[in-house]
Each structure stands twice: as C-alpha cells, then as structure tokens.
Amino acid sequence: MNHFERILSQNMQLSKKILYTLCMSRLKNEVRQFCSDNLLRLNTDLGQHFLVDENILEEIVHSGDIKETDHIVEIGPGIGVLTRELLYGAGKVTAVEIDERMISLLKHFTGYSPALHIVNNDALKVELPDEPYKIIANIPYHITSPLLRHAMLESKTRPQSMTLLIQKEVADRICDTKSESLLSITVKLFGEPHKVCNVPPAAFLPPPKVDSAVIHIECFKEPLVDKNTIDRVIKFAKIGFSMKRKMLRNSFVTFPGGLELLSTAGIEETRRPQTLSVHEWIAVAKASK
C-alpha cells in the first residue's frame, strides 16, 4: 500500500467512525427527547435499557432474517426502538410489555402501525402463538433463562428462531462449545446457537452495568429427542452440574444406580459435567430407560 492509498484508507475509516457516531447520537437524542416529552422515567429494575445504536439494531434485524410473511414476537419492547425496525420488514409483530406506562408510548413511537399487536402482560405467563413465529427481542436480562424455558419447554408451539440481546456472560455460556452448562445443554436440545456480536454499555440509554451480546438460535423443526427423554436429560444434567467443578462420580454416586448409568452410556465417571456434549447427555438419558 503506497502513501496515497494509506491516507485514503485512514480517511475512509475516520468517515465511518464519524457516520457511526452521528447515527448513534441521532437515535439517542430522539429517544432521550421522546422520554423527556412524555415525562418517562425508566425502571431499570425491569431491565429498561433502550438500545440506541443503529448498527446493533441492523445486526439484530439482519440476524433474524425477517420476511414479509413472518410473525415476530418481541419481549419487553419498551417505547419501541427495536419494534419500529421489526415493523419495516415483518407482516405482524406481537409486542409483550409488562409495564402499562409503555403501551400508549409504544403505539406513538411506532406510528400506530396496524401490524402491531400489543399484549400488556408478563412474558413468562403469556401463551405464545400457535402459528409459526420468531422471537426477536432486547429482553430484560433477569428473565433470560426463564424465557428460554418458557419458549422451548412450556409452549405448545416453539419458535422458528430466537434472536436475543442478552447479557454477554450468559451469551458466552450458551454459545460455548468447549465448556457446556445446564443452560447451553437445554438450548442445544432445541436449536443451534451462535453469537452475532458483542454490545457495549454505551449502546444503551441508560447504559447497563454489564456488557451485552446478540445471539441467534436457529431452532430445529423438532427437538433432538422426545419430551420424556428431554425431561431425563435435564434431570441428569442437573445432577451433574450440581457439582460442576468435580468429577461426575461425585454427583452421580448420590443417585441410586448413577455410576452404572454412566458406564452403560459409555461416559467415564472421571469426566466433569461441562465436558459432556448434548449428545452424550442424551446417551445418559437413554441409558436410564
């Protein structure tokens, strides 16, 4: 690269940074002004941190692979920063919001779209649609695990995919392929997760105290195994992860026939639970029949 090309490259990178800052500032100012005009004080106990980074919004929408025929379920929309983007592409958006103060503001901010259906309720108590749907959401971080259980284990119809903005630590745990957790095993029974991008606190208004990340879970048409086997996988994984840092023999010896079960499944009792793949936990579950 010659001197001219190097200067041109540096100028292009600088232009991108300036454009990024301007876009982020524009949306942040819009959201801040909207909240001020409507005398809205955010309740951070409910996880109300509004995403104001247009690049991250674009990453979420792109990862969700939204089509005109899609029904999108959004959890915790707030005033509708992400909702507005979802409505540009989806045929229908169902927004589930627990905070009653947000309902009229959500309608206002998103332009009273006829494609928007709002449910004022706790997302963990709402029946998810019977028809095909995708979940795309910047969810309150404290309901991440309960929401995944609700969508994958408790709902009659599971989502086609889930694109979630969650705490980075949890995202890393779900997507880790070298060290599994009870949460990652549960998710991998139903779909294939991967991390899309990291999100800094500065991307939110107000900034949270933790780093965040976007993950995408492409759900299988059917879970890897039937419901009874799923229940046993989770049961035995809970036993194993009850002593995460110890060998499996320490936890399974407390369960009648536990060590014999590991042997039948071909699992060395000296291994630690985080080293077992979802398919090995399935083998343990099937050995218990």
Concise structural overview:
With 289 residues, this protein is of the alpha/beta class.
Q: Can you walk through the features of this model?
A:
The chain is of the alpha/beta class and 289 residues long. The protein has 2 domains: 44-219, Vaccinia Virus protein VP39 (Rossmann fold), CATH 3.40.50.150; 227-287, rRNA adenine dimethylase, C-terminal domain (Helicase, Ruva Protein, domain 3), CATH 1.10.8.100. 44% of the residues lie in helices and 16% in strands. It has 11 helices and 9 strands. It has helices at residues 3-37, 54-64, 81-89, 102-109, 144-154, 168-175, 182-188, 227-241, 248-252, 258-264, 278-287; strands spanning 50-51, 71-75, 92-96, 116-119, 134-138, 161-167, 191-199, 204-205, 212-219. The protein has a 7-stranded mixed sheet. Strands 1-8 form a two-stranded antiparallel ribbon. α8 (227-241) packs across α11 (278-287). The radius of gyration is 22 Å and the shape is elongated. The chain starts with a helix and ends with a helix. The model is unreliable at 14-20 (pLDDT under 50).
